[in-house]
Design brief:
Belongs to the disease resistance NB-LRR family. The chain is an alpha/beta fold. It has 30 helices and 58 strands.
Length: about 1300
């Protein structure tokens, strides 16, 4: 029948105009349109999977995903999810032969959606490959950098002058100079911090510790990192950096510790007319370097501390014992020898702390006998202080380690290198094992830190992790380093740091012939001198600052260094001259540009440690080179991914390159880092790793991906595309001991623990599986398997991450072994299509908590997931509740649930479920009678509860036990219930609604007979019965406007227990608390109103008479904070409620001229803290309103703290001469950036406890009384 009708319609269509033909075409092409749509949806799904993988890879690398990419994925997911609805609609349209209308509508819709999907697939092609960018750089100055910072008063004027110079448009290059150790770096860090806080520049960047041997590439890298710019190793670095800097409208570039002329053009820093928005701040020990070499326009000297400041710092470091009668005079003289330099004061105070009087006397005598020093920028007094600190180190081990640190360049000091060199030089007595040496080194480094001779790593250098140490780097202050090098040159071992250009002359001296350790600095050299005549030399470090790595080392250079044991050729290309160094034990070629490891390395038969990490261009390791190094203990080939390992068995006997099986000959190897691009390179009949006794390792099998070093672990395996059979054969020993295990594309494993490690991975801390389609269970302990997992399986596991395991049915199936998962803190399950239950347990399983430490749970894109725990027997009905009563997660801090299509009810937090239009159907919401805490965050819901029964109000007692409701960032939310809704929220104590900008009426309580009129401005709360009777905390933030908070008359019970009211970014309201709500809110204690652009009155002045209430208005209000209210012109409405107020904070209320009237001020008898900041129109705090009081005494009885900050027009606290102000309790007062304040008040002032005033630099100042102090401050500014 359908075919007849269609045939007739076709004939008619031939005679009709095109529009009619087009409409009938939807009917004729129904089947084709439907098939086209389903095919396009499948293609869209494929495009989504490709793009999602790019996104996940970018996320692993720590990159930020572009918002349009996320939106595309979300939109694609919504379309794909509609496929099931489409199939259902097609079935309905096919049931009857007369349903032409249904077919027409479906065909038309399919045609339209097909075109939209084709466009979306094209967009995916445009997005692919550009899904992310580098995240914004971290804050320039962390709070940790200033944990011990003290703003000395003697520096305040210098600091202010520098800040003023930065504000001067005519000044583009500024210099700061002073002796080494005077804290120039600390001062400019504080300058940078304040410049950022005050937004003087769009960007502030800095390069610290440039030193005598500036490394241009390193300086460029530091600046680029702060700009979020990646610089490649090519000739375009300076061009790209210059352009990036010029793209900043205004930028401050700080270059710290300059020793000579520095080529800004070569670095890529624009200045002067090239970029007038770029200012430079330079530091140096000498003024001549700044004004002559760098041609700075202004120079500011950082002077030594005065005697008072020096003594204060010394006493704080050494302890109060220095005040003892027999010690004080000695200590004072010791401080004088420090010459006011903080670095000397701190180090010598630590050295003498808790020492006896004779030790102090001897120290003073040594300081008085100080010999002259020729160290540039370091006086003999400072030298003697640091030398004394060195002499007071206990033991030769720590002293030798201190001197060794000074040899290792000018930047951060690698703990790995320290360990290698210290072991080889036998610095540690009776310590032969790696483990004992590591513990010894950590102990000695901590001792040097306590003595202030070493410092914590600040993050300017390499942040990569170490297999050996949790903290991979330490650093040494440049002055300490210079003194240490001077001491080392006099040491019996003759430690020497030399410039290569001085080498020829120096080699003629006895010092050279007796020298055992050299750190050679090469600058602007093409070739080293012909030979190094140092027959006693044991240690040689070549520190090249050349931008060109092709520094030539002559063939005979090491001819007379037969005793050499340690050779560090950092970033050197030419290394063929090392073959004759038969006693060499440590060879470091880190970050060199070599492409082939020389054959000569095979001759180094005594070599113990070979460091090749970050040799990114290394391709060839000749055969037999590695296998010849039979005594090797440490081998690092980290990030050497281009090495062309020879496949085992290929051209056997003729092969050129090394095979991985060569590693098996290294029986003494204990530490190994290696990356292999192809698992097929491993031998089939040989097991290179199983024969080794590795204690620390990082082994990566991956064709180019470099894993993030985010884990503090010493045993790591990253394996991609390796079969389980091969893995067990080649890595069995390592699997059992690994702390980090990352498996990708594992295609033949079903039960991970059973097949890979039946002992239960007892040492594993971090487990990641991605794209492993055959995995069904991580742990399978069912009776169907003839194997019982041991106790303590995964007992150390802290993080478990499973992504795209298409056949995963459960993480654990069967009983959880005792002691298992007890340390798990992070559980992440993503895109596991078949996962129904995270843990599938037997019905008799106990109810104890299996995850006492779990802090973060992330479940995303798990379409079949039903529950977290499942204990149901086969055939029983599935639980509706996601978290059953067995789930106890006492440590849970974060729960992320996204696109969990099968979940019927959520009991905790809902984050990022953008697919949901509403969260609960009414029948589910009605069942959640035990729900106590509900957080919904970053979801696209339009309503929380969907009432599908139109015309029928929702039950009165929805969520009867809910105590906390938080609705955050729900940008599509319009109301709580989609239809009529009635509830009283009887137990709700906390309600937060933030950034829900489309809300119309959130809570509407109406009777069945009453409907709400469509008002122009809707109320957030429309209630007429008792509602929110126990609400204590209410926080609201609605930017959408056109929504009142309150409307109408409320029951005496509604909101009656409200204690805290926080209103933030609530646009469109002029009054926060209307007059009819004042008496209802009689329990209000805290009122916070922030960033409300239209509020002109906080509490409405008019009163509505009421016979119903007989309660004193707001008697418990103790704290008020008003911030960023540009329309607020007065606080007169608050005056009646000041009687109990204890804290008042007013910030950025730009229209306020006066804070209070005299009458209002007299009511502030309970006020303890008053803060007023950034009110640009404020002229005085207590302003005259024309009504003079009979009693002219105004007493702030309990006020203890008063802060006035950034009030540029403030003249005084009160300008009237009539009033007497009393502050009997005032102890702390800050007046900062109030440059127009000439005096405090003209009337009588009594503040007996106030003895100091804090100014701009947070320093105390005082002269006679408060008025005199402020007057003096004003005159100094003028």
């Amino acid at each position: 029948m359908v075919d007849i009708v269609i045939s007739v319609a076709a004939k008619v269509a031939e005679c009709l105009v095109d529009p009619i033909a087009r409409q009938l075409g939807y009917l004729f092409n129904y089947r084709r349109n439907y098939v086209d749509l389903t095919e396009q949806i499948e293609m869209l799904d494929d495009a989504k999977v490709r793009l999602q993988r790019s996104v996940e890879e970018a996320s692993r690398q720590g990159l930020d995903i572009f918002p349009d990419v996320r939106k595309w994925l979300e939109g694609a997911e919504r379309i794909i999810q509609k496929k099931e609805d489409l199939i259902e609609d097609e079935k309905k349209a096919s049931k009857s032969c007369f349903h032409l209308k249904s077919r027409y509508q479906l065909s038309k819709q399919a045609k339209k959606q097909t075109a939209e999907i084709v466009l979306k697939i094209q967009q995916a092609g445009n997005l692919d490959g550009i899904v992310s960018c580098r995240p914004p750089p971290p804050p320039l100055i962390s709070s940790a950098s200033f944990k011990d910072y003290e703003a000395f008063q003697s520096r305040e004027s210098t600091f202010n002058q520098i800040m003023e110079a930065l504000r001067n448009k005519d000044t583009s290059m500024i210099g700061v100079w002073g002796m080494g150790g005077v804290c120039k770096t600390t001062l400019v860090k504080q300058v940078a911090k304040q410049a950022e806080e005050h937004k003087l520049f769009h960007k502030v960047v800095m390069a610290l510790n440039i030193s005598k041997t500036p490394n241009i590439a390193e300086i460029q890298g530091k600046i680029a990192s702060m700009l979020g710019l990646t610089l490649e190793d090519n000739n375009e670095r300076e061009v790209r950096l210059r352009q990036s800097l010029k793209n900043q409208e205004t930028i401050l570039v700080i270059l710290d510790d300059i020793w000579g002329k520095l080529g800004l053009e070569k670095i890529g820093i624009p200045y002067g007319d090239d970029h007038k928005g770029c200012k430079l701040l330079l530091t140096s020990r000498e003024r001549q370097v700044l004004d002559t070499d760098m041609r700075t326009q202004k120079e500011f000297q950082v002077r030594h501390l005065n005697e008072e400041e020096a003594w204060s710092l010394f006493k704080r470091t050494a302890g109060d014992s220095v005040e003892q009668l027999e010690l004080r005079s000695i200590a004072v003289n010791v401080v004088k020898k420090c010459e006011g330099l903080p670095i000397a004061i701190v180090t010598i105070a630590n050295a003498l702390k808790n020492k006896s009087v004779p030790v102090w006397e001897n120290a003073l005598e040594e300081l008085r006998m100080a010999a002259p020093t020729n160290i540039r920028g370091v006086t003999e007094g400072v030298y003697s202080c640091l030398e004394l600190s060195y002499n007071h180190l206990v033991g030769d081990e720590v002293k030798s380690l201190f001197l060794l640190c000074a040899l290792l360049g000018d930047g951060d000091i690698s703990m790995d290198r320290l360990l290698q060199f210290a072991m080889c030089l036998n610095l540690f007595e009776r310590t032969y094992s790696w483990e004992k040496a590591i513990n010894k080194l950590i102990t000695l480094v901590e001792n040097l830190k306590v003595s202030s001779l070493l410092l914590d790593h600040e993050g300017d250098g390499d942040d990569s992790s170490s297999l050996l140490f949790d903290h991979a780097f330490v650093r040494m202050h440049d002055v300490v380093r210079d003194v240490a090098r001077s001491i080392a040159s006099k040491d019996s071992h003759r430690f020497v740091v030399r410039e290569a250009v001085e080498l020829r002359e120096w080699q003629r001296t006895d010092e050279c012939r007796n020298c055992t350790r050299i750190s050679l600095i090469c600058r602007n050299m093409d070739e080293l001198p012909q030979g190094l005549v140092c027959p006693q030399l044991e240690f040689f470090l070549l520190n090249s600052s050349n931008d060109d790595p092709y520094l030539k080392i002559p063939d005979a250079f090491f001819q007379d260094t037969k005793q050499l044991r340690i050779l560090d050729l950092y970033k050197i290309q030419d290394i063929t001259v090392i073959g004759e160094l038969k006693k060499l034990q440590v060879l470091s070629l880190a970050e060199s540009d070599i492409e082939q490891l020389p054959n000569e390395v095979a001759q180094l038969s005594d070599l113990r440690m070979l460091d090749l990490q970050n040799c990114r261009w290394l391709r060839v390791i000749p055969r037999n080179v590695i296998s010849s190094l039979s005594r090797l203990e440490y081998l690092s080939m980290k990030e050497c991914s281009r090495i062309e390992w020879e496949a085992e068995g290929f051209n056997r006997g003729e092969r050129i390159n090394a095979c991985l099986s060569d590693l098996k000959h290294l029986s003494g190897l204990r530490t190994l880092e290696v990356q292999v691009s192809d698992p097929s390179l491993f031998p089939e009949d040989d097991v290179p790793f199983e024969n080794l006794n590795l204690t620390r390792y990082s082994i990566v099998i991956n064709p180019g991906w470099i894993p993030d070093d985010v884990y503090k672990a010493s045993r790591r395996l990253w394996l991609e595309g390796v079969t389980s059979l091969y893995m067990v054969k080649c890595f069995s020993k390592l699997l059992k001991r690994s702390q980090v295990l990352d498996l990708q594309e594992l295609n033949d494993t079903k039960h991970v623990v059973y097949e890979l490690d039946k002992e239960g991975f007892v040492e594993l801390k971090y487990l990641t599986l991605e794209d492993c389609p055959t995995v069904q269970y991580i742990l399978h302990s069912s009776t169907s398997v003839e194997w019982v997992p041991p106790p303590n399986t995964f007992c150390m596991l802290e993080k478990l991450s499973l992504t795209r395991l298409d056949n995963l049915e459960a993480v654990c199936h069967g009983p959880i072994p005792m002691g298992s998962f007890g340390n798990l803190r992070f559980l992440e399950l993503l895109f596991c299509r078949r996962l129904k239950n995270v843990f599938s347990l037997p019905a008799q399983h106990g109810r104890e908590s299996a995850f006492p430490q779990l802090q973060h749970l992330e479940l995303r894109n798990l379409r079949e997931l039903i529950s977290f725990y499942s204990t149901r027997s086969s055939g029983t009905q599935e639980s509706m509740t996601f978290f059953s009563q067995q789930v106890a997660l006492p440590g849970l801090e974060s729960l992320q649930l996204e696109r969990l299509d099968n979940i019927r009810a959520l009991k905790l937090e809902v984050i990022g479920c953008n697919k949901l239009l509403n969260l609960f159907p009414i029948f589910v919401a009605s069942a959640l009678v035990q729900l106590e805490d509900l957080l919904i965050w970053q979801s696209e819901v339009e309503a929380i509860v969907a009432n599908e029964n139109e015309g029928e109000a929702a039950p009165l007692l929805l969520f009867p036990n809910l105590t906390s409701l938080r609705l955050w960032d729900l940008h599509q939310l319009k109301r709580f219930c989609s239809e009529r809704f009635s509830s009283s929220w009887p137990l709700l104590k906390r309600l937060e609604v933030h950034n829900c900008d489309k809300v119309k009426i959130l809570f509407q309580q109406i009777s069945l007979e009453c409907e709400l009129d469509n008002k122009i401005q809707q109320p957030l709360f429309w209630v007429e019965k008792e509602a929110f009777p126990n609400l204590e905390v209410l926080g609201l933030s609605l930017k959408g406007g056109n929504v009142e908070i309150w409307r109408g008359q409320f029951s005496r019970v509604s909101f009656s227990k409200l204690r805290v009211l926080m209103i933030k970014e609530y646009h469109g309201i002029s009054v926060v608390i209307p007059s009819n709500m004042v008496q209802i809110l009689h329990n209000l204690e805290e009122l916070n109103v922030t960033m409300c652009d239209s509020v002109n009155e906080v509490i409405q002045v008019e009163r509505l008479p009421s016979e119903e209430f007989h309660v004193e208005t707001l008697p418990r209000l103790i704290e008020i904070c008003l911030k960023d209210l540009p329309m607020l012109m007065h606080l007169s409405g608050l005056g009646p409620y000041f009687q109990s107020l204890q804290a008042l904070e007013i910030i950025s209320c730009g229209s306020l001229i006066n804070l209070v009237t005299p009458l209002m001020a007299k009511r502030l008898v309970q006020l303890k803290k008053l803060i007023i900041q950034k009110c640009h129109m404020m002229k005085e705090i207590v302003g005259n309103d024309g009504h003079e009081l009979i009693d002219n005494e105004i007493e702030f009885t309990r006020l203890k703290s008063l802060t006035l900050y950034h009030l540029p027009n403030l003249k005084s606290f009160c300008s009237s001469t009539r009033y007497v102000f009393k502050f009997p309790s005032l102890e702390t007062m800050e007046v900062r950036e109030c440059r127009g304040m000439e005096f405090f008040c003209k009337g009588v002032l009594d503040a007996p406890r106030l003895k100091s005033l804090r100014n701009e630099f947070f320093k105390e100042c005082w002269q006679d009384d408060l008025n005199t102090t402020i007057r003096k401050k004003f005159m100094e500014q003028v």
